[in-house]
Amino acid sequence: KNKINILADSGDNPTAGGVGDRSDVLCFIIKKKLKNALIAGIAAPNAYLKLKKNKKQLISLGNNLGGGGPKINFVPDKVKFIKSCAIIQYKFITIVITKYRRAFHYLNDFKELNLNIKNYNILVVKSGYLSPDLKKIQSKKFMLLTDGIVNQNINNLKNNFRKKNIFPFNKKSKFLIWFHVPQKVLITLSFEFGNLIYFSGIL
Fold first, then answer.
1. Distance CA 71, CA 64 (A)
2. pLDDT > 70? residue 172
């Protein structure tokens, strides 16, 4: 019985404003030769329309709609069409190519495409947090801090216009936080490198 690992491609989440066309995770899986993976899905209308005309031709995935990231070119081994999606087999991976931007958050999304996610070792969805449907599946779950329009890897975001010494963008700075509580106690917290290094309280 397969033990599934669910990976959330958070930086390209279409329900949060991401484009949904990036192929970063797909390229990584191919590079590492990870087997029995389901990628759901990648928006690529050009690839979808090309496959509609001819299932055995070279297609390109990644940055089809301007979302950036790497591009990968290949000829699919198998192709079938269901509900404006092309479900393709390439080597050891099943990839859902979507004609339109969309997310796969619910079990019914996979059922409509005749996909049983329990048959896979890896499921990749473009999501920030997992929906209740996916959350309740017994599996290991990981939120990937991937690149994209809605990149959630805050520490690595460029800080061009914010004032300096704002955590976590300036890790090497010290930060003082002063606040009052109802008992008229003045609390001082000092942070350096994101860690609490000093605490004081004055009555």
1. 9
2. no
